[in-house]
Amino acid sequence: MSANLRQLLDLPTRAAPRRSFEYVEGWGMSAGERRRVLRPASVEELRALLARARTEGQRLALRGTGCSYGDASLSAGGDVLDLSRMDRILEWDPARGRASCEPGVTIEKLWRTILPDGWWPRVVPGTMFPTLGGVASMNIHGKNNYEVGTIGDAIREFEILLPNGELRTASREHESALFHAAIGGFGMLGVFTRIELETKKVHSGELEVRAVRAPNLEFALEHLESQRDRCDYLVAWIDAFARGRALGRGLIHEARYLEPGEDEHPEETLQLAHQDLPAAVFGVPKSEAWRALRLLNNDAGMRLLNAVKFHSSALEVWKGPYRQAHAAFAFLLDYVPNWKFAYGRAQQRGLIQYQVFAPRASAAALYREILERCQRARIVPYLGVLKRHRPDPFWLTHALDGYSLALDFKVAPERRAELWKHCEELSERVLDAGGRFYFAKDSTLTPAQAQRMFPPENLARFRALKRELDPQNLLQTALSQRLFGEFGAQSS
Amino acid sequence: MQTNTQGRAIVVGASSGIGAALVRRLSAEGWSVAALARRASELETLAKECGALTRVHDAKDFDAVPELFEGLVRELGGLDLVIYAAAVMPKVGRDEYDTPKDLEMVAVNLGGCIAWCNAAARLFRTQRSGTIVGISSIAGERGRKGNPVYGTTKAAMNTYLEALRNRLAESGVHVCTIKPGFVDTAMTQGMGKLLWLVSADEAARAILAAARSRANERFVPRRWWLVGTAIRSIPSFLFRHLNV
Lengths: 492, 244
Ligand SMILES: Cc1cc2nc3c(=O)[nH]c(=O)nc-3n(C[C@H](O)[C@H](O)[C@H](O)COP(=O)(O)OP(=O)(O)OC[C@H]3O[C@@H](n4cnc5c(N)ncnc54)[C@H](O)[C@@H]3O)c2cc1C
Ligand SMILES: NC(=O)c1ccc[n+]([C@@H]2O[C@H](COP(=O)([O-])OP(=O)(O)OC[C@H]3O[C@@H](n4cnc5c(N)ncnc54)[C@H](OP(=O)(O)O)[C@@H]3O)[C@@H](O)[C@H]2O)c1
Prior knowledge:
The complex is a heterodimer of chains A (492) and B (244). Chain A is of the alpha+beta class and 492 residues long. Chain A has 3 domains: 3-84 and 463-484, 2-Layer Sandwich (Uridine Diphospho-n-acetylenolpyruvylglucosamine Reductase, domain 2), CATH 3.30.43; 89-201, 2-Layer Sandwich (Uridine Diphospho-n-acetylenolpyruvylglucosamine Reductase, domain 3), CATH 3.30.465; 206-445, 2-Layer Sandwich (Alpha-Beta Plaits), CATH 3.30.70. Chain A contains 17 helices and 19 strands. In chain A, the strands form 4 sheets. Chain A has a 7-stranded antiparallel β-sheet. In chain A, strands 5, 6, 7, 8, 9 and 10 form a 6-stranded antiparallel β-sheet that branches. Chain A has a 4-stranded mixed β-sheet with strand order 1-2-4-3, covered by helices on one side. In chain A, strand 1 and strand 2 (32-39) form a beta hairpin. The longest helix of chain A has 20 residues, at 299-318. Chain B is α/β, with parallel strands linked by helices and 244 residues long. Chain B has one domain (8-239): NAD(P)-binding Rossmann-like Domain (Rossmann fold, 3-Layer(aba) Sandwich), CATH 3.40.50. Chain B has 8 helices and 9 strands. The longest helix of chain B is centred in the middle third of the chain and has 29 residues, at 99-127. The A-B interface holds A 1-2, 4-5, 7-8, 19-25, 34, 36, 287, 345, 347 and B 60-63, 66, 69-70, 73-74, 78, 100, 103-104, 106-107, 111, 119, 122-123, 126-128, 170, 172. The structure holds flavin-adenine dinucleotide and NADP nicotinamide-adenine-dinucleotide phosphate (NAP). Flavin-adenine dinucleotide binds next to strand 3, helix 4 and strand 10 of chain A.
């Protein structure tokens, strides 16, 4: 008894990795299962866990904060290795804007640390909750992808613990193959344990933002093209319900960094307090606001909401350029916490995101066809987002010289199979047009489609590297199982 | 908590008294139940009687909880309800200040409760459903002369469960604190004639009703609420002269 009691009192200093049994799901809630979750707090604990996995042949699915929409950080029959407790910023150099971080550091923690010194992450996703390990593994892009590339382009160096227990350091110059494979390698090659990032010097805590109305898809694409050189960020929201000549209408937001001197009080705008999102939306406490959206979460409601959003944007367009805090511009989706619950809180429902990357030349026709097909099938996405991208050197990158259209589809159990079939058919058209997909957003691709989307030589050398670094095939996720089966096994 | 369809439950402290009565009731309603306690023979009898899954477990063995919990949830095929009923209340003399004895109560009544409810909280929060029921006691309302640490463990349990309730409400998880008065079980054997004494089965019925109605706190039987409110309002300088 007393031994146990002593342990009770010693709890905080005990080194055993935390372990629990949880329902682990993708961010969109449409997939999930009960799994054992292991949460190491240090490289030593991580090593021990990997060693045990090797002896027991236990599969592990790496996970950050689970912000991938689909099954990318779920496990297929094994345990989940959650790196979010390894969340220390190991070094921050405000003179050079370089941060060296453990993999569980979130984008939020990063920007909060560096902004007061006048720096901002070069690449951020639409939400601030992902971890650096997760964003490196998916090689995420921001609304400035066309200008600065993906997060991989902002990573100088990383340390990765291989499934065999070996710790390696990789950069562009050193272990270049591993560097370009593990970034975007969707957690297949090893566990990032340290990531060193370059960040962007900013002279204000605010951006200059301007809203432009797009009467249709062609206008939106054309605007994203013609404004590339002028703007640091470009993103278009698309009303997927609009038809005919208004097909693909929406609202474009463009933004640029302020030059030195433009902001007369950078010391104020760079403060964290200036960045904080408002605590209430229309007087409703933010944490409950999703309940109101829940009422509109059906085709009629969302058709209405999209139309209202489009027409009411006139005011924002009319007022011309305005200034907005970095966090407010970048993380618009975090304004309403748990907004995804508007899609229902029950398991296996929620939403999926379907993001289509298309080469510049084929994008307009392809996106038009996709929107029309959705409307004909009466499977209309409730949210559409258009971005401009550029190619990068990472082996399995999703980015290309062209655009992406991200569509949020509601998952209703009675129409689930139909929705998957619908996306599968769309994917064939995308691949015919030379397009690609993004594992962070995927739920519906088939193995054949996943094969087709990468340059064959890239996939072949990635497989070879997987076999070399993870011969026991320990690192697997539900996504890797779904798309590649026993990924890396000799037969595959 | 499941009302129409049959759910799956874990009851810790299930070999006798209120815990055993809860297992019987839930089983009779068609629930799949796992019953845990130290006495294997009592658990065996219970299993024969109502088909409950059983595990011999000492609530002081906190380290065993994650694995046990995981195994049980897998075996039950999911989990909807956790009830923590385990407690010890050794006799404590008027001038007795026995640290090991006191800390045994802390470990079983409180430590075990935290270990099990934390495990349940992680699962319930992530699955966005589930009910946690903690069997506290009227004894947690005031610091009485009789058994200082027993009351302390129950008071601590109340605060812990309230905090869990507040944390988990957003996820659709419910936490219910039960404060029984006197229940006819081993714990009250030999205490003489007791006020408003109810059977373990009667208490179990009231506890499940409270959990189903998503009560935050419930005295069992409910009239103990009056006593609870009254004794909480007695000023300390008077309370110390009372022989309760
Ligand atoms: C509201 C919202 C908006 C978003 N906006 C964007 C956007 O604008 N642009 C964009 O690109 N993405 C966007 N995303 C997607 C998100 O950025 C990615 O899914 C990202 O990977 C999530 O990081 P995470 O820490 O949650 O990782 P998880 O989802 O938990 O895991 C992602 C992948 O990383 C692997 N992994 C995790 N940790 C490690 C590690 N330490 N070492 C090795 N592998 C690891 C996992 O196995 C998995 O394959 C958005 C997501 C949401 C929910
Ligand atoms: N009876 C009352 O008047 C009354 C009043 C208020 C509150 N309560 C509370 O009601 C709950 C149930 O008590 P009860 O009246 O039913 O008494 P009980 O019959 O003595 O039941 C106590 C249960 O706890 C278990 N337990 C004790 N120590 C344990 C340990 N170390 N590990 C695992 N299980 C342990 C016992 O099983 P094993 O011995 O087999 O381990 C038994 O199943 C307790 O929390 C008690 O404080 C009772």
